[in-house]
Amino acid sequence: MRVDTPQQLPDAFSFATTGAQLHGGESTVVLVEEYLDGEEISVECVTHQGITTPVAVTRKEVGFAPYFEETGHSVDAADPLLPQVGPIAQAAVAALGVTSGIQHVEMRLTASGPRIVEVNARIGGDLIGKLVLLATGIDLPRAAADLALGRRPALTPTRHQAAAIALLYPDTSGTVTARGIDPALAGADWVHQTSWILDVGDRVTLPPEGDVDVARVGLVVVTAADAGQAHERLDTVTRNITITVAPAA
Are 219 and 237 in contact (CB under 8 A)? Predict the structure, then answer.
C-alpha cells in the first residue's frame, strides 16, 4: 500500500497488520520501505549447478492504487530488457546462495536503475510460466522437474513471439449476474485461453476488501508476433467480454 504523507501512515499500518492477521501468516510484522517509482517487471530464471540463466522478462500491469494489484502480464521473446536486467537477477540469486531451482525475480525500473523487490524461489504466478512457454518455447515446469532429477534443463528458445494475459476484474463489488465473450473472438487462433474463475451467482469483492481469490472473474491469454501486437489483441478481446455485477448493498 503506497503512503505519500506521514498522516496516511497510521491507517496504512493498521491495514497491513489486519491483513497479515487475516491470512494467518507466521508473522504480523509490517514492512515499511522506500517506494520504488517505475515500471514493474520480473525476470524468470533457471539455476543448474550454480549457474543461473535468465530466460525471460515479464512486464506487469498494476492497478487499484494505492494498492498494487497485478492485473496483467506480458512476455516477449525479443524483449531488449533481458540483457540489462538478467545479470542483476543472476547476481541476486548468487548472493542468496541458491544453486538449483526456478526463480521469479521481481524488480522496478526506477530513475536510478533497476531495483530488486523480491527473489522468489518458484515459477511466477498468474500463468507466467505458460506465457514464457508460449513466447519462447522454454518449459519452466519441465525445467523444474529436470532439476529435481539432477538433469540439465533445456533452456534454448524454440519460439520467438509474445504472449500476454489479462486478469478480468469487474467495475464494482457484488454478485456476478452474467459473463461472456464474443464467440467469434473466442475462436480466434491467437486467443490461447479464456477461463472463468467465478460463476454467475458468485460474490466478487474488489480490493482493498477482496484479494485475488475473490476479485477476479476470469482471464484471457493471447499470443502475437510481439508485445505491441499482444497488447492490441488483449484490448480487442477484453472489449468484447461482458461481466455484469449486481452491486452489493
Answer: no
Per-residue confidence (pLDDT) for residue 194, from 0 to 100: 95
Backbone φ, ψ for residue 18 (5° rounding): -60, -45
Please list the rounded mean pLDDT of every run of 10 residues in the chain (249 residues): 94 87 75 93 98 98 93 98 98 97 98 96 97 98 98 97 97 96 91 96 94 94 97 96 92
DSSP 44: E
Q: Which three three-digit cell numbers place residue 7?
A: 498522516
Tell me the three state secondary structure of residue 33.
Answer: coil
pLDDT at 18: 84
Q: Which residues pair with 204 in a beta bridge?
A: 174
From CA 87, how far away is CA 211, in angstroms rounded?
Answer: 33
Question: 494489484: which residue's cell?
Answer: 69
51 and 155 share one domain:
yes
| Residue 69: φ, ψ to 5° | -75, 125
131: left (phi over 0), alpha (psi -120 to 50) or beta: alpha
Strand-pair partners of 114: 109
Are 47 and 147 within one domain? yes
Residues 76 and 140 in one domain: yes
Q: Are residues 93 and 187 in the same domain?
A: no
Q: Say which CATH number the domain at 211 has.
A: 3.30.470.20
Cα 27 to Cα 117: distance, rounded to the nearest angstrom: 19
Cβ atoms of residues 16 and 1 within 8 Å: yes
